[in-house]
Amino acid sequence: MAIKLGTTTIGGMRLGSTEITKAYLGSTEIYTSITDGILDLYSAPAAAYSLRSLSVSPSSFTSSGDTDGDTSGAWVVQVRRSSDDNLKSFTASELSDGTLTTWTSANDAFISIWYDQSSNANHTTDGGDSSEPKIVDASTGLIVDSGGKPAAEFDGSDDYLDLSTAFSTTTGTLFTVANLSTADSGQTILGGGNVILPYLSKNSTSSLLWSTVFNLSVSGVYVDGASQSWANRGDAYTAIVTDSQVLMALEGVDTDGHNIERLGAGQTGSSVEANGTISEIIIYSSDQSSNRAAIESDINSHYGIY
Description:
Elements: E1 3-5, E2 8-10, E3 13-15, E4 18-20, E5 22-25, E6 28-32, H1 38-41, E7 47-50, E8 61-62, E9 72-73, E10 75-81, E11 87-91, H2 92-96, H3 99-104, E12 109-114, E13 134-137, E14 141-142, E15 152-155, E16 161-167, E17 172-180, E18 186-192, E19 195-201, E20 220-223, E21 226-227, H4 233-240, E22 246-253, E23 260-263, E24 275-284, H5 292-303
Antiparallel strand pairs: 1-2, 3-4, 5-6, 7-24, 8-9, 10-11, 10-12, 12-13, 13-14, 15-24, 16-23, 17-22, 17-24, 18-19, 18-23, 20-21, 20-22
């Protein structure tokens, strides 16, 4: 339900810096910004990692190993506080409403588990303190993307998160939202086994875009909603690694029987790590080409990328 100012539809409402999701005139709802999410509209993905809720009514599940807080909730991440290594899970709204930063206080905080919002509960595992991406910086506070939304910061050195259950796909569709740094000449967003999707190398003339070992295939590539035709990894790097927020979609992903195992790194935990922020990764093990544009639109409406 939207509010109009004359003939102009108001796209959002804020009270100070806080976004208002609903407004009432007496007991009558006159405005809502809440619409169906990706998980409500399309077939279930194989895995869905985001720092926003991907459903209007997100499912609750039990946290894993929390030392603070509740054991059940619609969590998106579990966070480790640097001062005492305590662990606490947070919902999407708690990342940005001050709940997270109140808990972390004047400390760094890191993502120990990124929860899978799909029905498969393929949450990442806690691989140890050194590999955890940062979500709160002691000096600057909550880490955000270029649009001011919460983001996970990967250091390009040893940060990555392993999936609890590896999987492969033959007709998959992949969506990622990331802000990758041009200071690093090699970048990836996810991988595992002998899978690197994508593998981006500055000034590389290699035509094997997606893997260094096996013949992984992708039938369609889109960046910020526009179809791409890349001759080599250098082309891919130029299109995606821009020091700004980029939405990428890959259609027809075939991992050739090899597993996707981790977020933020390639073939092993020390191979082509992401350097920058990642806000969302949604992986379908089915062909979503007919829904690609609509899913991109949903993602873009939240992040305001293009």
